[in-house]
Amino acid sequence: MSDTKIPATQVWLITGSTRGLGRALAEAVLHAGHKLVATARNPEHLSDFAARYGDQVRTVALDVTNEQAALDAIAVARETFGRLDVLANNAGYGDVCPIEDTSLAEFRAQIETNLFGVINVTKAAIPLMREQGSGHILQLSSVGGRIGPIGRGPYAAAKWGVEGFSEVLAKEVGPLGVQVTIIEPGGFRTDFAGSSTVIQEGRPEYDATVGKTARFQRDFNGKQPGDPVRAAAAILHVASLAEPPLRLILGSDALRAIESNDLAKLESDQKWRDLSSSTDFS
Hints:
The chain is of the alpha/beta class. The chain has a single domain (11-271), classed as NAD(P)-binding Rossmann-like Domain (Rossmann fold, 3-Layer(aba) Sandwich), CATH 3.40.50. It has helices at 20-31, 47-53, 67-81, 104-132, 153-173, 207-220, 228-239, 252-271, 273-277; strands at 11-14, 35-40, 57-61, 86-89, 135-140, 178-185, 247-250. Strands 3-2-1-4-5-6-7 form a seven-stranded parallel β-sheet, sandwiched between helices. Helix 1 crosses helix 7 (228-239), helix 3 packs parallel to helix 4 and helix 4 packs parallel to helix 5 (153-173). The N and C termini lie far apart (42 Å).
């Protein structure tokens, strides 16, 4: 909405604030003078925020898969700061393993956190933002939400779900004054590919695919091109815009991969155009 007014001081809620992009974003939000509800499974890991920023920040325990915990976290924003301007759904993880060797329990666990966690917290925030007639929901997806990354079947399934969910959400809440932006990072020097990730090559038959990915991931950790501080600055900028993009790719590696992948899809669609249109009634 072109007449949307962005407050100079915003109230943010960030999930997964203890490390990675979530930590960098929380630091940037507080340094910029905004107010923050910083959440994590263990809020003790956020104690330094409270020590440094005092009443500017509230730290809250939040397991994003828990519906009541999500409602309680949003209530903290309302009760402490009176509103919620920006929700950043950042919490998530992605293991590496062939689909065949990934148990259904692990599939469910990753989808529960990466997709249903986003749905839980988003749904908890919508009523408050609808009442305000304003707000901005930032969905931390991934380059893996636009392409199918080898070895990350559950993660990609969840992130593609986040993308579809968020497109629908944007169309439903946009007329109410609530904006949605899907953030799609590539490789950043965070803990995402370190201790946060279980990397398994799987059985020998997948050595040339998932095995190659696993070896690359271990070697790539710490060498990713993306700077989390610059990513946080870009996200903060998008949150200041009256007309933000629906999608924002972060990182030159993600940009190259997504552009190449989208072009290949378009070329394939054109190649099979006649067969696709042949299914209509005569």
